[in-house]
Amino acid sequence: MKWSRRKSTKASQKLPDDYVEQCARSALRKAKNIKEFDIPSSLWVNSDRTQVIYAPGDKMTWAETGAKQVGSVGVEEKRVFTLMVSIASDGQVLPFQAIYEGKTEKSVPSKDARNRRECDDIGCCFHFSGMKTYWSNQETMRSFVEEILVPYFDRQRKRLGLPANQKAMWTIDVYSVHRSEEFRAYM
Fold this sequence. Notes:
Helix content: 25-40%
Distance between the termini: 60 Å
Strand content: 15-25%
Strand order of the largest sheet: 6-5-4-2-7
Protein name: DDE-1 domain-containing protein
Shape: globular
Structural class: alpha/beta
Number of helices: 5
Number of strands: 7
Largest sheet: 5 strands, mixed
């Protein structure tokens, strides 16, 4: 039958034509701020969000070798959440923020869920998005800043014996919620 295991694919995101220049400018801005404001490595945090899929499977099936379109049942159906992961430049990992689709507390893991208490004890936060998506929005980003990022920076300043107004630096992606006038004004 000339069949082989095949995996469906999609186009990857394209890089802007000037991505090398943009990266260089970003690195120079960060270096200038670190030097200018004497930012210690524990006060420079990088955050990124990622989609977590429950039991994703490998989306593999059998199809005719060379087939351009490979159909599969149930591929569109998924159970997912967004995980905001942050690490300081000195290697310290900040508590995670998990964002679930939904409009009530019933959308997030129950307080009685296995290991939930341990997550709560180390400062992880579980939020429902309040909408039909599991991605970050204004409210979840503000919650991240207020419940995870600022308390972390405050603890580090205290640990290092630095004044409360010691500058810190936070690197995040350029998603629309991060670039929005509303979020930038809030920050």
